[in-house]
Amino acid sequence: MNIKILDSWLREYLKTDATPKQIAEKLSLTSVSVERIEKYKNDFLYDIEVTTNRPDLMSLTGLARETAAILSENNMQARFVAPKIVHPKQIKVIETITIKNNEKLVNRICAVVMEVTANQSSKIIKERLESTDIRSLSNLIDVTNYVMRVIGHPTHVFDYDRLATKTLTIRESKPGEEIITLDKKIYKLPGGDIVATNDKGEVVDLLGIMGLEKSVVTNQTKRILFFIDNNEAGHIRKTSMSTGIRSEATVINEKAIDPELAMDALLYGIQLFEKIADGKVVSDIIDIYPNKQKIPTIIVTETKINNLIGVVIPLKKAADMLFQLGFEVKIENSNLIARPPSFRTKDIQMPEDIIEEIARIYGYHNIPNSLPPLNTAAIINDDTNPFSWEDMAKDTLKYWGFTEVYTYPMVSETLFEGPLEDAVTIQNPLSEDMVYMRRTLVPSLLQVVSKNKNHPEIKIFEIANVYHKRQNNLPNELLRFAGVIKKSAISFYEVKGLIEQLLIELGIKNLVFKPLEKGGDGATVFFDKEKLGDIEILDSETIDFELDFQLLLKHATRKKAYQPLSKYPSVIEDLAIVAPATILTGDLIELIQKQSTLIKKVSLLDKYEETRTFHIIYQSYQKNLTSDDVVPVRMKILNSLKEKYNARLKE
Amino acid sequence: MQEQLLRLKNNALSLILESNSVKDLEEIRLQFLGRNGELTQLLKNLPKVALEDRPEVGRIANEVKRILEDTIKQRENEIGKKKIQTTTLDVTEPGIRPPLGHLHLVTQAIRDITEIFERIGFARVRHPEVEWDWYAFTSLNFPDNHPARDDWETFFIKQKPDTKKGPVVLTPHTSSGQVRELEKEEIPIKMLNIAKCYRRQSDVSHAPMFHQFEGLVVDENISIRHLKGTLDYFVKSYFGKKRKSRIRPYHFQFTEPSFEVDISCGVCEGKGCKLCKEGWLELGGAGMVHPNVLKNGGVNPEKYTGFAFGWGVERVLMMKEGIEIDDLRLLYSNDLDFLKQF
After folding, report:
1. A504 and A514 in contact (C-beta within 8 Å)?
2. Which end of chain A is more exposed for a tag (fewer CB within 10 A), N or C?
3. What CATH number is given to the structural domain containing A483?
């Protein structure tokens, strides 16, 4: 949340010689970030981002107090001047109103009835409010906002006569209750919102969020109920999110404001009404405060302070810093005993919180930089490091002309492969396109292909998780490696070769390709008996593949094996074999290979109609091969081919 | 005789070197080395040479022959090259390149980041993307009513919540890996967790899926100075030596103290400009690990301390490259015209 504050306004509560630039710099480095300072008429305007744990700084008082402490610690003259808070004198009680609180909903209520004159605010009040992004409306409304900015507690004002009730009852709203807010918008409440009702049981206020049309002050207002409600923050946030109302007050109220500020806000507001609206108090001052907040006592040791910050800060100096920030501090032995001010109790709960205060005031920029010690280091073995294999696979494909894509793992029903009851399903999806956690990558890649119709040739890949549902457990996240190639007259063997070559790069050889298990054109790829994945021919120009990368990781290896080179030359011959087309080339090669240890390598050289020519390399480690050695092997090959597959040498 | 041979050699050489065409060279070869060439003619006089001088003259004659042949060949090559260069080679025609694809920008950034942190002893790990609420929120000290747990912020999975670990979510941050890492009981820890994260928002500066990198260091006596040192090392390694880093107070549930990390603006070098906030750019959050988080991971906060940071990969990428992508979702729209630019 951001707050904009005029320099001159801040200086009503902060007496210092520091320049706006110095103030901005010190605040940013040690407290809250001043995102900008800009010239504003003859003044400067700070735009400050306040973190959610410091709602106390959403006010001039808070900022002035904090800035004074920081500047003093940085050896600059600075003093915090708190706004004067006085109790109204000699109240003549004319009116009485009863407030029935629900202490689970509202922590504290301070209220008073006043006679007033509605009017325009003075120029200075208007200007100050407008500089802080609040629209000036009438003096009655302006007071509530002005008090909120000075003290930091949101406040509210009802038209007492329009309210026309003797009792104000705080309760939770029922689902569907309808209200009209002061900006004349109609809302149906979700239920569980904090509302106030009048004698007739009508809702007259949506507490902590926004006033209602029914009870808002007008130009005719003569009497007001000035009302400070310190609400349970969770309720406020819920109402705000479900109704979408994000008023300035809401933003502050949902952060849990210090209830101690409520009375200050009331008294300061009374003074302002007296000053700018001829205000006169006509009721007792109501203060309903059932549960005072407890202020913790926190003990922190000197060793802990110094160890966590990484520099030695004398305990006395640390105590001074805390004192400046409004803490009660004692030093006992080598311990600091500290109690935070009321406006910090939500934020300061344990020793580390105290250390944070000391460290930031000491100045994070004053702490030297050093790298953490390297006494030991994680052992990263490339063979077992999945990331290095991933890199290798990605690089290889990149240099073969592939483009890597990143697609969303959440997919639509159309892209999800498999029965929907197997899907890891998102309960609150952003759109119908992103409901299921995918079980396969290929559909997402095919979607990319169809999105890029302007490219006649596409080669893409992705390495990402798929998600397999498990009962009463987290889904199994499995790394997959998938790709799609689209080009005219693509050959299955291009993709097969690509996978073979890539896997050789990963140290995985001797893959087995079998017809596609799930049917259709393509192949299922095995290593040993394990299924690595599928190659799928979609049409004459599109082929996809998806492999189990985890399985690849299991077998990937950088192991190098030395095979002694033979001193003797090889004998090479090509055999043209006529065999029925139904016989698989792989089976023929396997059979030939098996016939002799002298056969070093067999490969398919050519295929024409029923004739397949095999390129055979014979080699021995013991001697020069002669035809006496080769002929018997060749005979054996031809015999076995004939016997098993009815294949013969072409004449 | 020797003199005649040398003269012949010199004459021939100067003719060869002055020649400008293969045809001329062929003529020169015939003139000197041909069957009726000058060298052959000259050697016909060999019998006239004194017997004892003949071997020496023979040797010189052979050498002259070899030199002339080599030089002719050499000149031929020169002329040939010149010919290609001057007549048929259009160097402006496109070269034939080997295929070159493209790694996704995010992969490139992840590699850069990993390399930097590995140099100072961090090791990359992987933790679940679909995770129990316990690891994503509760163990990280998020109160029950924290806004991040609202179903308009975080994706929830349709599944019966576990009695202990709560509902299942898509990890909204890499911090979900912190307690998982602590549970390994391998201190000292220097974790680098880079992973996909998911938040329920989609606009020009948010994609529902994005990437974070998370560092976690836990050991005895780990202090704010170590956090500062590590972040500064990253900033200077990744963005450049000139860049400065600073930490400012901030607020997160799972760190205490918490910091916002800024780097000096690369455009104005810290002077302040339209692109930055008073000379600084916000990089992301960091902090000292909250004692409750250590406890939840089974680590004794009295003995060990640690720091953590978790930043957007896309964010540092954009900040580094100065590529002003007007819609972050473009990174994941997989338009090949976009991806092929990098």
Report:
1. no
2. C
3. 3.30.930.10
**Residue type at position A238:** K
**CB atoms B334 and A407 under 8 Å:** yes
Cα distance from N-terminal residue to C-terminal residue, chain A: 89
| SS3 at position A93 | coil
Element (H, E) at A487: none
CATH number at residue A603: 3.30.70.380
- Same domain flag for A250 and A134: yes
Report CA dihedral (A427, A430, A433, A435) to the nearest 10 degrees: -10
Rounded to two decimals, the pTM is 0.82
Structural domain total, chain A: 5
Residue in A361, A314, A366, A359 with CA at minimum distance from that of residue A68: A361
Alpha-helical (H) ranges within B22-175 are 22-33, 38-43, 54-83, 105-119, 133-136
Residues 6 or more apart whose CB falls under 8 angstroms from that of A198 comprise A163, A164, A165, A167, A168, A204
At residue A95's C-alpha, the angle toward residues A92 and A101, to 5°, is 120
Ranges of beta strands (E only) in A558-649 are 571-578, 599-608, 611-618, 648-649
Task: Report which of B275, B252, B76 is spatially closest to residue A352, judged by C-alpha positions.
Answer: B252
pLDDT per residue, tens digit, chain B (342 aa), is 778 888 888 888 888 888 888 888 888 888 888 888 888 888 888 788 888 888 788 888 888 888 888 888 888 888 776 665 556 788 888 899 898 899 999 999 999 999 999 999 999 999 999 999 999 999 999 988 788 888 889 999 999 999 999 999 999 999 999 999 999 989 999 999 999 999 999 998 899 999 999 999 999 999 999 999 999 999 999 999 999 999 999 999 999 999 999 999 888 888 888 778 878 889 999 999 999 999 999 999 999 999 999 999 999 998 886 677 888 899 999 999 999 998
CA distance A312 to chain B (A): 12
Are A460 and B336 within 8 A, CB to CB?
yes
Question: How many Cβ atoms are within 10 Å of A311's Cβ, its own excluded?
Answer: 14
Nearest residue to A394 (alpha-carbon basis) of A383, A406, A384 = A406
> Residue B246: its chain A contacts at CB < 8 A?
29, 364-365
Residue that the structure tokens 């999110």 belong to: A241
Residue A646: enclosing H or E segment and its boundaries? none
Nearest residue in chain A measured CA to CA from B260: A33
- Does A161 share its domain with A264? yes
Subunit contact B155:A54, Cβ cutoff 8 A:
no
Architecture of domain B105-339: 2-Layer Sandwich (3.30)
Chains A, B: CB pairs < 8 Å: 222
Domain of residue A204, residue span: 98-288
Q: Would you give the end-to-end CA distance of chain B in angstroms?
A: 72
- Enumerate helices (H) and strands (E) in chain B, giving the number of each: 11, 9
Q: Under 8 Å CB-to-CB from B258, ≥6 apart: which residues?
A: A356, B249, B250, B251, B252, B285, B286, B287
Same domain, A147 and A266: yes
* Sequence-ordered list of residues with C-beta below 8 angstroms from that of B63, at least 6 positions apart, any chain: none
Q: Among all residues of chain B, which has the CA nearest to that of A465?
A: B129
DSSP code of residue A439: S
Residue A404: which H helix or E strand, with range? strand A403-404
* Cβ contacts of A353 on chain B, cutoff 8 Å: 256
Helix (H) / strand (E) containing B252: none
Give chain B positions within 8 Å (CB) of A373: 219
Q: Are residues A448 and A547 in the same domain?
A: yes
Phi, psi of A268 (to 5 degrees): -65, -40
Residues 6+ apart with CB under 8 A from A3: A47, A48, A50, A57, A58, A59, A63, A132
